[in-house]
């Protein structure tokens, strides 16, 4: 396999060049198009059918209800609009929220007012101290089990059986307790030796007036991907608004006339988690570029040299974007949803971070405007390539009809392109493919698409993505050639 590694200029290897078909034959692939394509236009290439998730119309009615509850809370807790929005993003994506701020900033009141908007939910609430033990959180140990030498929590009424939880002064807790919370926060499981119990916990809102440094604390913070800092605000109008609300409510939590059921929340959450809200690949491309640029900017700050956005967090940004689309009454994520990235990427309440991120978002949208159409074409070809790899993993050969339709779909993706004629000329040169060379013809075609895309790209980042795709094609070519030489290859392990 070493003798087939591609060179630095991404040219075909010597062996691959010999396998290419350079002269057209009487039965060219292009001539075959007319005989088959007219019979079936809805055929999915390589027999791969996309999953179509249907979305109930009332999903958007529920999202409208949620927005009404957000308005209700904001009317009763002054100046907390972004934090309340962030809390509902946490609910809809099944994540946790951390509220930081000085004592007396109504953090606890805010959390309780948010929970008050839900109907018939189990809420666990605990003020943590250095003396709080796991049995205070997960339930007392059963006496009968203790007599048999087993430490089994009686989870009834504990955080394990709750739908939501409020943990006050979370960082006052000792590291042992915080460590025991990790699996519950991340995996929704109580893991205590032989006792392993699934939890119904959807979201934890934790509050604290400080952060202390420890290895365990760093792991806990990573579980709270939504974070807010409540800053002191002595603006006279803001203080007057607080006085008015306090005068109306006398510092009490208000209950809405109608409440939101947990079933409705979970319905939207499932829509988001099953990815029924469509996510255009172009949006993912912009998202990844924005996060990379933001990380680089943050590392320039003193004391932030090690700042990073983990791959796990980056992937979960998709859930935020889908939640943003749903709350806006859409089943497709759009560029404007990227403006809500700060809810997850920044510490809400830190205006400097939000401003820095927004500048990057706006700049990114403009920067890739000229390559937007090109990037869309690239993703179309990448999806076709991925489908072809799946097919090869499922069966040894690609059928003539499938090959024709795949090539036709590739051609269609270049319609309107200034380089469309170059692709057509290349296809005409491929000629007829024998059983052994059908897939190699396709790989040659994918490689040619990469060459054309590179000629069209105006931004180095678009070129970077195309080069990565080109490397993937060449690598898979090598794997395929090894299989043709008699080596055992598990194609399913090589699908990227």
Identify the overall geometry: globular
* Span between termini: 19 Å
What is the annotated CATH architecture of the largest domain? 3-Layer(aba) Sandwich
For the biggest β-sheet, the strand order reads 3-4-7-1-8-10
CATH class of the largest domain: Alpha Beta
CATH topology of the largest domain: Rossmann fold
Largest beta-sheet characterization: 6 strands, parallel
The CATH superfamily of the largest domain is: P-loop containing nucleotide triphosphate hydrolases
As a percent range, the share of helical residues equals: 40-55%
Q: Provide the number of structural domains.
A: 2
Proportion of β residues?
Answer: 5-15%
- H-E string: HHHHEHEEHHEHEEEHEHEHHHHEHHHHHH
Estimated radius of gyration? 28 Å
Average pLDDT metric: 82
Unreliable stretches, pLDDT < 50, 5 or more residues? 1-53
Query: What's the total number of strands?
Result: 10
Q: Give the structural class.
A: alpha/beta
- Output the number of helix runs: 20
Fill in the keyword field for this structure.
alpha/beta, Rossmann fold, six-stranded parallel beta sheet, two-stranded parallel ribbon, 53% helix, disordered N terminus
Could you explain how this protein is built, in words?
With 496 residues, the chain is α/β, with parallel strands linked by helices. The protein has two domains: 165 residues, no CATH class; 216 residues, 3-Layer(aba) Sandwich (Rossmann fold), CATH 3.40.50. Helices cover 53% and strands 8% of the residues. The chain has 20 helices and ten strands. A six-stranded parallel sheet has the order 3-4-7-1-8-10.
């Amino acid at each position: 396999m070493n003798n087939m590694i591609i060179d630095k200029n991404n040219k075909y290897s010597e062996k691959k060049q010999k396998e290419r078909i350079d002269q057209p034959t009487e039965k060219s692939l292009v001539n075959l198009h007319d005989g088959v394509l007219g019979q079936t236009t809805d055929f999915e290439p390589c027999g791969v059918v996309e999953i179509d998730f249907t979305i109930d119309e009332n999903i958007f009615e529920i999202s409208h209800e949620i927005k009404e509850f957000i308005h209700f809370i904001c009317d009763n807790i002054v100046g907390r609009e972004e934090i309340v929005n962030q809390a509902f993003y946490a609910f809809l994506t099944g994540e946790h929220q951390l509220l930081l701020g000085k004592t007396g900033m109504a953090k606890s009141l805010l959390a309780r007012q948010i929970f008050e908007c839900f109907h018939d939910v189990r809420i666990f609430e605990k003020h943590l101290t250095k003396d709080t033990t796991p049995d205070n959180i997960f339930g007392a140990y059963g006496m009968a089990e203790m007599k048999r030498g087993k430490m089994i929590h009686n989870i009834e009424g504990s955080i394990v059986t709750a739908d939501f939880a409020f943990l006050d002064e979370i960082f006052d807790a000792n590291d042992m307790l915080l460590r025991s919370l990790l699996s519950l926060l991340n995996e929704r499981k109580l893991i205590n030796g032989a006792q392993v119990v699934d939890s119904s916990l959807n979201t934890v809102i934790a509050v604290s007036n400080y952060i202390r440094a420890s290895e365990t604390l760093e792991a806990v913070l990573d579980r709270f991907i939504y974070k807010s800092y409540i800053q002191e605000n002595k603006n006279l109008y803001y203080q007057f608004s607080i006085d008015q609300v306090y005068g109306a409510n006398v510092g009490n939590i208000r209950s809405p006339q109608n409440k939101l059921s947990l079933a409705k929340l979970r319905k939207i959450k499932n829509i988001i988690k099953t990815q029924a809200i469509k996510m255009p690949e172009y949006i993912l491309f912009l998202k990844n570029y924005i996060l990379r640029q933001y990380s680089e900017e943050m590392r320039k700050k003193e004391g932030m040299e090690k700042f990073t956005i983990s791959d796990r967090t980056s992937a979960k940004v998709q859930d935020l974007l889908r939640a943003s689309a749903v709350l806006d009454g859409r089943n497709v994520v759009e560029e404007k949803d990227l403006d809500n990235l700060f809810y997850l990427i920044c510490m809400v309440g830190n205006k400097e971070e939000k401003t820095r991120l927004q500048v990057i978002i706006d700049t990114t949208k403009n920067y890739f405007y000229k390559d937007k159409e090109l990037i869309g074409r690239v993703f179309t070809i990448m999806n076709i390539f991925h489908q072809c790899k799946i097919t090869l993993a499922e069966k040894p050969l690609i059928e003539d009809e499938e090959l024709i339709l795949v090539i036709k779909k590739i051609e269609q993706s270049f319609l309107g392109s200034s380089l469309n004629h170059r692709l057509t000329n290349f296809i005409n040169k491929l000629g007829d493919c024998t059983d052994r060379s059908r897939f190699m013809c396709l790989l040659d075609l994918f490689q040619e698409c990469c060459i054309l895309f590179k000629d069209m790209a105006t931004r180095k980042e678009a070129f970077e993505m195309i080069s990565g795709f080109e490397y993937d094609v060449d690598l898979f070519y090598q794997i395929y050639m090894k299989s043709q030489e008699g080596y055992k290859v598990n194609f399913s392990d090589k699908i990227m």
